[in-house]
Amino acid sequence: LPNLTPVVSLDDDDFQVDGSNDPVQCQITDPAEAYNVERITVSDRTNQYNSTPIEARDEAAVNRYGVRVDTGTSATEICDTSVGSVVAQLLLQQTLYNRNTYSFKLDARYCGLNPMDIVALTDEYLGMAGTAVRVLTVEEDDTGVLAITAQELLVGVGTAVLYARQTSTSMGVLSAFATAAPVNPPVVFEPPVALTGGVAQVWIGASGGVGGVAAPAWAGAQIWLSLDSETYSCIGDVTAPCRQGALLAALPAYAGANPDAVDTLSVDLTQSAGTLASATASAAASGATMCLVDGELLSFVTATLTAADQYALGTLYRGQFGTTTAAHAAGAQFARVDDAFFEYDLPASYVGQVIWIKLASYNAGGAGMQGLSDCIAYPYVPTGAGSIGPVTTALALGQSLDLGQVTDGVALTDDFGMTGDTSVIAVDLGVLT
User: Residue 231's CB: how many other CB atoms inside 10 A?
Assistant: First the structure.
């Protein structure tokens, strides 16, 4: 409990007047120019004392004035990230909310004042009546006059709320020969036409972990594919862990217009140690924060860290890119869809038959790869959902189509989904004549 009692009360009888100027000068910082993001660097003892950045930001100020980042502070003497979080938050509140600075002069009677002392100021012109301020600097000239600068004392911003924060995980001492951790159950899906440009694709995302907990030394995996679960060929690599996890609670179906501001998507990313960040509404509407939940593609505006590796996602744009909005049960697979996914162009002959996928992990040193016989084979039956059908392809190319008589059997078909689905394909057929 700090002592907030002023050591002295000052009024017009105490100030040294400089000409016709008011004895107390006040400088007010424009809130639009105040820094709303503070970053410090600490030494994390739980991560071999590696330099770890910690950031504190005020989202309300960011949304109103834009991002204003202060010069980073080196605080390597701090070895506890929880302490660093408090320090970063206090720095943010200090620079953002303490905006009034006062300057005044006193005679030698007050030479005992030191920086950090609290004094009470009374100045009728500024509307100050016993207002508590904290001394920042004291300068004495040759005549003994003290030039003092002080800052407003806002008690509330001197305390930092202990928010839950994402922390880094130590990789330990990496051995190039250490066997990499196996992959978590991978995320395998076929994106809709709006994301493939009409080419049938299978997207594969993976992360490494043991017992549902992310393995920090996991760096990627080779992807092997087979049609008979016996003979495999390598089709590419996952070169970064995808941010995957599971739903902590059920997500109801939604039939209204986007965005869904009623429901909250609660996810647990422990298996990948992934992080999620908020975005603007326009970015989310365009799919910038696209996620996959049980075949439904959706995006979020706000991402709130509720516990270690757990997030509450709000203001959801449901059923994006022609996918169907549906209800999702707790425990359903979740993935943030981004560049960590490997995109595989699906041969037409693979559509409708089982393909087997194995992912052989390797460690952060690019070694320690799993043996293929030790990897789990994951079956998947592709549907070719990301391809444009033959009718649409012919129309898009301007080719003439003769489909015969109405009594003839069906020769060509395109599946455009349900009549209520969002349109994802547009073909310009020219002017009606």
Answer: 10
Show the beta-strand stretches assigned E in 45-127: 50-57, 73-74, 100-106, 118-123
Both structure tokens of 167: 């922390």
Q: Looking at this protein, which amino acid is placed at residue 295?
A: G
Under a CB-based contact definition with an 8 Å cutoff, are residues 328 and 316 in contact?
no
Adjacency order of strands within the sheet including 233-238: 233-238, 218-226, 355-363, 378-380
The pTM for the full model equals 0.58
Question: Residue length, the chain?
Answer: 433
DSSP-assigned states of every residue in 202-255: EEEE--BEETTEE-TTEEEEEEEEESSSSS-EEEEEE-S--EEEEESS-B----
pLDDT on residue 126? 85
Of the candidates 147, 258, 151, 201, the residue with the CA atom closest to the CA atom of residue 387: 201
Give the DSSP H or E segment for 95.
Answer: helix 81-97
Six-digit token pair at 319?
């059923």
Contact 133, 123 (CB under 8 A): no
CB 364 within 8 A of CB 177: no
Coil, helix or strand at residue 157: helix
Q: Which residues of the chain have pLDDT under 70?
A: 163-177, 386-399, 415-429
Residue for token pair 């697979």: 333
